[in-house]
Amino acid sequence: MKKLIVLIALCLSSQVFSQTDEDVLKQIYKTALVEGKSYSWLETLSIDIGGRLSGSLNAERAVDWGKAELDSLGLDKVWLQPVMVPKWVRGAKEFAYIKAGSGVTTNVNICALGGSVATNPLGVTASVVEVKNFEELEALGEAGVKGKIVFYNRPMQADLINTFSAYGGCVDQRYMGAVEAAKYGAAGVIVRSMTLNIDDLPHAGSMTYEDLPVSKRIPSAAISTKDANLLSTMLKLDTSLQFYFKQNCKQLADVKSYNVIGEITGSQFPNEYIIVGGHLDSWDLGDGSHDDGAGIVQSMEVLRLFKTLKIKPKHSIRVVMFMNEENGLRGATEYAKEAKAKGEKHVVSLESDAGGFTPRGFSFDCTEASFNKILGWKPLFEPYLIHYFIQGGAGADVRPLKTDSNITAGLRPDSQRYFDHHHAANDTFDAVNKRELELGAASMAALVYLFDTHGI
Amino acid sequence: MKKLIVLIALCLSSQVFSQTDEDVLKQIYKTALVEGKSYSWLETLSIDIGGRLSGSLNAERAVDWGKAELDSLGLDKVWLQPVMVPKWVRGAKEFAYIKAGSGVTTNVNICALGGSVATNPLGVTASVVEVKNFEELEALGEAGVKGKIVFYNRPMQADLINTFSAYGGCVDQRYMGAVEAAKYGAAGVIVRSMTLNIDDLPHAGSMTYEDLPVSKRIPSAAISTKDANLLSTMLKLDTSLQFYFKQNCKQLADVKSYNVIGEITGSQFPNEYIIVGGHLDSWDLGDGSHDDGAGIVQSMEVLRLFKTLKIKPKHSIRVVMFMNEENGLRGATEYAKEAKAKGEKHVVSLESDAGGFTPRGFSFDCTEASFNKILGWKPLFEPYLIHYFIQGGAGADVRPLKTDSNITAGLRPDSQRYFDHHHAANDTFDAVNKRELELGAASMAALVYLFDTHGI
């Protein structure tokens, strides 16, 4: 009899919610696919605004646009969080060529890496030494490197199924290449673009000089993979060939910018936060549609879906458009600092920053107990062909929010096409598929709903 | 002691094979991704040959190309299997406009459906009646339909996650629309294109007149989704508007064509066949890269991978390039007929005909016992992010080979982008991603390897 009462009580309690998790997820996916807004938002952000490097006029316009759109959603709060960001400018288009011993020159496609110094105004001409890694560089030493251009040419590994693993295995060349080569007196650095495609596009991205004095900083640029292959082949035939490149990029003083934040205040736990976000800044060569316009509009869509479906969350749900992920992470740092100062408890922080491709699942940085609980939700996602739940790193913007007890998480879309576009001139709106983008937004909303309903 | 002997025997036996299934799959995926040939094959088939409608010169060229490429692989046998195929030709580009009551005309994008008759040489002008399905058509009856153009405008359902389900729910309009409308004396048929995109591209595809006498056959065309929306909106404002279209397509006499077949003869069961295939013909508007150039080159790659990795199969492994899937299925019918006549036992027939997108899994038409055995292989595929194993229909070309005891199967790639390109002018090489295509080929090779090694 007691069991029966419990059973009836359970039935009644489930009637109070009146909808099962399955039903809510179905509504979320249906609404995102049939009357979603993420794609038209992305069209505006990508086409009307475009590439939005931190500190640029376009980044300012993106902030204004983001706030205006959030204002229109009827959220409980929308605000701008000020943050000082670096302002690096590319300047005039870079120019580079290979000069063979015969004197014949072949133009190649390069772009200055973000944060790099300019060459001198007339450009740098030097012979080239090709290396695959820092060990080879060290073995060459000052005798082999001084006065030369170091050409880092270790390709991304094509047999890794997750292309982010292939990226992770190569990006040290781009980020640390200049500081390592400068140790041996190199005149400059050329880095093979971080892509698996063999094409003509140089891929930008950040690099560092660490604490190198300004006088020791050497210019650093990415070269397209096709031209990297060409340079490597020509070097094998003629080690005395010369490489010329000119770039007039510049690091200016920091400028004021903003994170854009919107909130639906929780009905039961208003001071406990589940946040969804992406980064509003992008590189400047394309329009930043995949990196990370997609994450921005998907995060906005999560809150819009909650409003449209009249889901009243127990926790406060925030969308955070982080500023300056690409070359400083200042927005994320500032957001985490203020959250800590105010004692805001961030229970779950979910980022989308891996492109607007078909979602395959999520990665979670969390306790074993939380992960096991999350694994229990896998069947709810299977109708949407979401199968991939792993413990692993979340996005860079939510990492500063990690504590021992909370969860940071990342949407994991299909990664095959991501590095075809990453930081390059073809990261543009036409490379985003409407349904793939919408499925990602729906998957994020579904996960947020489950966290809000069932806790962590 | 007995247990120890068994254990040693097991170790020795596994050493005889010298490689575990995991190792072989790793080699298959690595070879496909690092030194695959499928993408460069597709480039030739798509760019150098192009769209290859059954009976066309391009289809002939594709047959010659396919045979030459198979000849170069060092297979045990390569041959052409003759088959008579229909030859339908589009003729001059179609032309259509909406004429408002005011007399103002608006051009719209249409294409004749495959198998349709021409309009009369001056075109058809008639008023339009819009229906969503055959029930609405029947309700209108002859009084509402006679002399008019029937406009089928039921859209694909966007909230279905698998876009093939959405296609399946609509394609009756295209295939049966003319024969149904002719019953009530319609002057012609315009069908909303089978795509979830709202764009300007009409999507071709086959239609039937069943046993309708030639004199009763009415012309049938697809209209782009954007123009379907326009026509529907204009009709709401002005039911008396006129629609004009002109097409001069034609059904000619059947011509001789071929299936292209290559074989690695099995070492233990030479008269038991595992086949992989796709269809060599395509529609004519694009170059047929996804439908089904991808399936062709992936199937070729399966046999090339076996040769490259020196895997000597126990069963005979065949690649079959089926002719005329799109508008007749003559190649598949002939292949199955001859296989039956010769008593060739087809244990597994695997088709790739759903585009060259990231593979998600396979569908199997097989016994429960076989399916359970296959499910046991799922962990082998997880490192390659293949999670989706279902019982369901295989491709059209392998269906005629189905028996009670054998297996037909289909590769299941991600379906989100497929109908953006399906049968339209943008089914072109640039819409195929190299790695996605290669992962599909590797997945097919892996499955074939497991069937060959472990049986069904």
From TrEMBL, chains A, B:
Give the Gene3D superfamilies listed for this entry: 3.50.30.30, Zn peptidases (3.40.630.10)
A Pfam family that the UniProt record links to this protein: Peptidase_M28
Domain Peptidase M28, by residue range, is 259-444
Signal peptide start-end:
1-18
Record keyword S-adenosyl-L-methionine present: no
Keyword Glycoprotein set for record: yes
Q: Where in the cell is it found?
A: Endoplasmic reticulum; Golgi apparatus; Lysosome; Secreted
For this UniProt record, give its keywords in alphabetical order, as a comma-separated list: Carboxypeptidase, Endoplasmic reticulum, Glycoprotein, Golgi apparatus, Hydrolase, Lysosome, Metal-binding, Metalloprotease, Protease, Secreted, Signal, Zinc, Zymogen
User: How does the record describe its quaternary structure?
Assistant: Homodimer. The monomeric form is inactive while the homodimer is active.
Q: What is this protein called?
A: Carboxypeptidase Q
Q: What is the lineage of its organism?
A: Bacteria, Pseudomonadati, Bacteroidota, Flavobacteriia, Flavobacteriales
